[in-house]
Structure formats: structure tokens, C-alpha cells
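Complex 367.
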Amino acid sequence: MLAGLSACVVSPSHREHAPLDQQRVSAFADTVNGKTVKLFTLRNKSGMAVEISNYGATLVSIHVPDQKGQDGNVLLGYDDIKGYYNGKSYFGCVVGRYANRIAKGAFELEGKQYQLPQNDGLNSLHGGVNSIDKQVWDARIMNDAIRLTTVMKDGDNGYPGNVKLTVVYSLRADNRLVIDYSATTDKTTVLNISNHAYFNLTGDPSNTILNHEININADAFTPVDSTLIPTGELKKVAGSAFDFLSFKKIGKDIDQEEQQLVFGKGYDHNFVLNANDGMSPVVEVVEKNSGRKMEVYTTQPGIQFYTGNFLNGSEKGRGVAYQYRSGFCLETQQFPDAPNQSNFPSAVLKPGEAWKSQTAYKFSVLK
Ligand code: BGC
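Predicted structure with beta-D-glucopyranose bound:
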């Protein structure tokens, strides 16, 4: 009798981590190079649930109610773990050792030349080949959080230093998904760590994201050349297609015959944030049909606003082939190519330093 009763009692920590669906847990379970790949779930009492895989420290889904209280998943993703092994678009994963691009995959640090894999034309993108987005991370379940750790080895993808990296995803009662990043190195290196989640606040990824309205607190952005490497200029956004200083539909100016938009096939640019104290939102996005709103907070100096311009229907999940501009990313970051651009904030990490950054995505509904 007692045993029966106690079996029915679900402890708070259980509820916080109860899976959404047992079949999904199986579809995301595997062993890679002797390491267990698992799907973890964070839930809160306000109706939010987040699925996370320790493969790539990946956000697999974010379930959040709409204005009518209907649950919906606002993330693009694949239906099983194999999708993530084969995925080319960096859905939901953590990217590094240098998120975004380094020109010609080359940089100099403390008088030494480094050459990285050139996996994006002549440039290096998101840390190179089989980087942390394709590794199994160690995972620990905490109360309202999952803590993931990995080591990027000295020489991995051409970068110097053994870097220990920790990412903690916490889901707060006020529908904030907080991501705490921290890292240390044993040799001077360059570091830029971000999350590559693609959002579609309609909850239905067969819609494009063009009707979402976005407000970015950035007076300037970093224009790029035709290979999407910053030219070094910080260009004022006021009055241009890049002006999101007040709410504007993503689709309003995206197809302007403007060289920057042609290079990016849309928005694929780093915005220079006006504030990065982590206390006030740097970006707000609203989608009026669902009534969902998302705010982004960060301690990073920049944010890559990428409108899914390279999605072309070749990646599938959630019953759809993800089409051009069906998701947008807001990748908080150091500036792209900072290791080659002395006027950009430094992305160098030295032994003895403890690098930390925090980004939060907060969800609510319009009143
Ligand atoms: C980049 C895009 C790139 C995409 C890869 C983004 O961070 O800015 O240019 O195509 O990642 O999925």
C-alpha cells in the first residue's frame, strides 16, 4: 500500500524533467563513440517546455503557449537524432570555437599564423568541421537546468589551446530560457560561442517569418563583402533597410535592391548592440496571429540577425521541408572575423581568464 502510494508521488524535480513524449525520447536516444546521446526536458509551471539534446548541446524544441493558451513549438528542428547528425543548417545547436565567419580561415595570434578549415567558400564558418555542434557533450540534470560540458582540444580544427566549455540551459518560471556560457583555456586562443536556434513564433514552420515584427536596439551594423565577411565599417542603420530601431515587419524591406541584402540574400548581418548589460532586451519580436512575443537579453556585444536565407527545402522535420525564410536566428556573439579586425571588440581568451556570457530568450503573449 505504502509502496503503491509512493510510486504515484511525482517529485517536483521529476515534473520539471518529465518527457513530452516517450516516442521522441527513443527517437533521440543513441550511443556515439561510446557516449550516451539523450533527450532532456525542462518544464516550468507556466506551460513552457524545452527539449535539449546533449548532442551539440542542441535546443530541439521550445514549446510555449500562444495568446489563446494553445501550446506550440517555436523552433525549427529534425524529428530524430539522425537528423542532427546529418543536418547542415546548425538547427538549435551551440556553435564554436568561433561562431560565424573568419576570413579565409586564417588569423594571426601572438605572432603565430593559424589556418582553419575553409568550409564556407574560402572562409571558415562556425568552427569548421565536426566541431562542438557535432560532438556528444557531458550532461548533468539540475533543478530547473541542464548543464552541458565539452572540451575543444588543442589543435581541433586548427585552433590553439584546450578549451573547457560549459553551457547551462535554465528554464525560469517567468518563461525565460537562460543560457549561461563559460570557458577557460590553457593557451591563448580566440573564442566566439553562440546558440543557433531558428525561431518561428507562429508555431507552424510551414509559414515564413516575414510577418514577424522585430525591434533591434542597435544604431549600427557591420556591413559585409560578397562572402559575408565584415568590411570593418560600423554603419548607422537609421533610415535604411537595417533600421529596426522601432518595430518593423521582417519582410518590409528584405527584398530591397540593396547590395547588403543581395549579398546576404536577405538579412544575415551582425548588429552592434547599443547596450549589453543583460538587463534590458536587445531585441523584441512579436507575431500578431499567435500573439507570441520573444525578447532577447545578452551580455554579448553583437547579434547575428539571420533570416533563414539558405534554407531551401532540403532539410525536413515537423512534417515540412523547411523553406526559404521559414525561421530566423538571433545569434548573440562577438563580431564576425574579429580575430582579423583590430577595431572590433577582442575575442581573445587567455590562460587564467574565465570567460562568461549570458543570453536569455523570454517568451510572453501580447495583452
Ligand atoms: C550564418 C549564415 C549561415 C548559417 C548556417 C548563420 O549564422 O550567418 O550565413 O548560412 O549560419 O546555417
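Residues 2-8 form the longest helix (7 residues).
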